[in-house]
Amino acid sequence: MxxxxxxxxxxxxxxxxxxxxxxxxxxKTYLSSGAVPTPVASHGVLSQKAAGAIVITASHNRASxxxxxxxxxxxxxxxxxxxxxxxxxxxxxxxxxxVKRLALGEAIKQRLVTYTDLEKPYTARLARLVGLPELIxxxxxxxxxxxxxxxxxxxxxxxxGGAVELVEINYxxxxxxxxxxxxxxxxxxxxxxxxxxxxxxxHIGIAxxxxxxxxxxxxENGRFLTQLQTCxxxxxxxxxxxxxxxxxxxxxxxxxxxxxxxxxxxxxxFETPVGFKYVAxxxxxxxxxxxxxxxxxxxxxxxxxxxxxxxxxxxxxxFMVKTGKTPSELLTYLYEKVGPHYYQRLDQEFPxxxxxxxxxxxxxxxxxxxxxxxxDHFDTTDGFRYHLIDRSWLLIRFSGTEPxxxxxxxxxxxxxxxxxxxxxxxxxxxx
Length: 431
Prior knowledge:
The protein is of the alpha/beta class. Among the domains are: 2-119, Alpha-D-Glucose-1,6-Bisphosphate, subunit A, domain 3 (Alpha-D-Glucose-1,6-Bisphosphate, Chain A, domain 3, 3-Layer(aba) Sandwich), CATH 3.40.120; 342-428, Alpha-D-phosphohexomutase, C-terminal domain (TATA-Binding Protein, 2-Layer Sandwich), CATH 3.30.310. It is built from 15 helices and 20 strands. The longest helix has 17 residues, at 80-96. The N and C termini lie far apart (48 Å).
């Protein structure tokens, strides 16, 4: 097994304890020699020819959290059937009297645990995928914000030695994530990045979340590109600029622009419930070109069937260099092809006990029109989604981890998005 960990408080100690347990059970372990992004640990499964990986990280969540991610033999997130087995074994071990553990020093002496550099094989893979020599020689100015997370230094090191001018902010390790409620690359958290882009005259700002499997883009004017815009732009880059062909995979919350791009370039589009654990199997089955989810996580063919914010950032830079366009110009170019699309998400907290009543209320309401527009069809793939005849859509779904109701909308005009969100809130009956 491979073990990686992020820059959160005591993550390296949790990782060492995990290695001790694996060693005590006779499992050879490659323990990362430093904090690494989740995609680096995922790639380590392939480079070390391991059976899987464990990553100690709470990703984009608040500073007081930590977490335990499990990766399968292809580097993807372990499927629910695997995690279900592990959870049952945890219960069994508690009944049987505890967990075996071999001290780390002894495990290293017995060669059951080996400290391993996971960064070098990972960055070598990315260099081949992107065509790094050309990118490094471009005279592009970039501001990078790893949000105090495990992605710190990666883009800086990979783009060094050429003509790229790169400024990195929030790169030091600080488990408190000062100034951030959580290290998530959303507009509300990227004010510092936006100001730095404007003040330094940079062409783009790139942010990665706490474990660098998600990305956020700030354009040259300091404006945030939504995750849906970024996904559509990356898809256009792969299909048009690189001339590749392959299936596109999207979650129900991802942009309908992928359907339009699928029509233009003659490639199929597959849709899944929310979560990359649903996206990855379809990517593998279809040898898909890209898989995207609304959280800002994108996976790519030829790499690992998992989200990678660092590779996504490099691909976006390459798109700019090969076309000679800024992010705002790329967005205009995209809209010339697929029409304008605007998106917003509303997160509504509610008392957990009211969940059944909210579900019943939505189920019993079957509107023919929403915000004055006729409903074309309705589905419950993941939540309650209304497709309107003008190709806009509204989705209402519950968070899987907290008592939060999420309302999503995409439409051709910003004011239309606002109207749909208000209508969605009315359907839920929440205040």
